[in-house]
């Protein structure tokens, strides 16, 4: 993946496949601690201990029409090569939390990329899921949930006009977090 | 479109969208399926989805439902987009954002299948 926002989309897709109804995306950027932390928490079916042990094995997949699953193993490699790491907590029936951290200033740390597009992609294709997004940059915070957006946009939330509007709105908010243009 | 900078502006946008929605009743006329497994995402499915949204907006077409399908088992053809219209489901492979725009204009809106890019029909 070229940017971390695509990895985030990939992990959210895993959560959706695990029947998650509530998904939290938490991003923390901290220049003092030189840290970039991404946390994705869901209330999906979760994994038992055996599967949890094997999630970073590329020959582990829950998909019936595939033999390999490369999303998490490659991300682990990427994080570890940037002085970071990836941690997964999961309990059968309770849900899964994936935490990924990077040393922010590491030369190989991929850009966070277009988070707004990732959020809108999920919104467009899974309007029924509640996604909570929180983004903190050096203690400045922006957060919003699909529930909030649904209250504002009601039944129009799935129209291309409103989805594009939301994408623009999120982009502006994220730009603000990073100190404007 | 102007940049949406506040919740208030988003609320105004809803009113515009509502007038388009009034024309639509019941189930959407066209369904667009997009495959968003790991391979699809890595091959550019997100940009294809955004191009579809953008083109639909430009043409004020709201009689459509976008459905995400995970991997359709056609990894080698990713990004894969399927259009269901008039009872036929047509799969397109190796879709770029530019192709996606043309598929929206010809097939989704006007019902003309773009035969050169079709990989399967159902």
Describe it.
The complex is a heterodimer of chains A (181) and B (122). Helices cover 37% and strands 26% of the residues of chain A. By secondary structure, chain A is α+β, with helices and mostly antiparallel strands. Chain A has a single domain (4-177), classed as Heat Shock Protein 90, CATH 3.30.565.10. Chain A has a six-stranded mixed beta sheet. The longest helix of chain A is centred in the last third of the chain and has 18 residues, at 160-177. Chain B is an alpha+beta fold and 122 residues long. Chain B has one domain (7-19, 28-121): Glutaredoxin. Chain B has a five-stranded mixed beta sheet with strand order 2-1-3-4-5, covered by helices on one side. In chain B, helix 3 (45-58) packs across helix 4 (97-109). In chain B, 36% of the residues are buried. The mean pLDDT of chain B is 89. The chains are: A alpha+beta (181), B alpha+beta (122). The interface between A and B is large, with 40 and 40 residues.
């Amino acid at each position: 993946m070229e940017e971390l926002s695509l990895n985030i989309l990939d992990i959210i897709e895993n959560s959706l496949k695990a029947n998650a109804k509530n998904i939290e995306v938490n991003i923390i950027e901290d220049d003092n601690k030189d840290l970039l932390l991404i946390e994705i928490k869901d209330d999906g079916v979760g994994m038992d201990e055996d599967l949890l042990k094997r999630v970073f094995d590329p020959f582990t997949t829950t998909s019936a029409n595939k033999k390999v699953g490369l999303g998490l193993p490659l991300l682990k490699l990427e994080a570890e090569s940037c002085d970071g790491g990836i941690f997964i907590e999961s309990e059968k029936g309770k849900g899964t939390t994936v935490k990924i951290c990077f040393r922010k200033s590491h030369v190989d740390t991929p850009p966070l990329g277009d988070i707004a597009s990732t959020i809108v992609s999920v919104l467009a294709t899974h309007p029924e899921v509640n996604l909570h997004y929180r983004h903190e940059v050096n203690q400045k915070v922006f957060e919003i949930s699909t529930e909030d957006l649904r209250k504002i946009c009601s039944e129009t939330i799935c129209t291309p006009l409103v989805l594009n509007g939301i994408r623009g709105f999120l982009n502006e908010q994220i730009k603000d977090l990073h100190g404007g243009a | 479109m102007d940049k949406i900078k506040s919740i208030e502006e988003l609320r105004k946008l809803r009113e515009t969208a509502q007038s388009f929605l009034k024309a639509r009743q019941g189930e959407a006329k066209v369904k667009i399926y997009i495959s968003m497994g790991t391979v699809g995402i890595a091959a550019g499915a997100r940009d294809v989805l955004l191009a579809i949204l953008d083109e639909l907006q430009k043409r004020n077409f709201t009689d459509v439902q976008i459905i995400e399908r995970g991997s359709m088992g056609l990894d080698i053809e990713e990004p894969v987009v399927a259009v269901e219209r008039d009872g036929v489901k047509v799969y397109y492979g190796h879709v770029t954002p530019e192709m996606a725009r043309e598929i929206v204009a010809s097939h989704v809106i006007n019902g003309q299948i773009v035969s050169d890019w079709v990989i399967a029909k159902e």
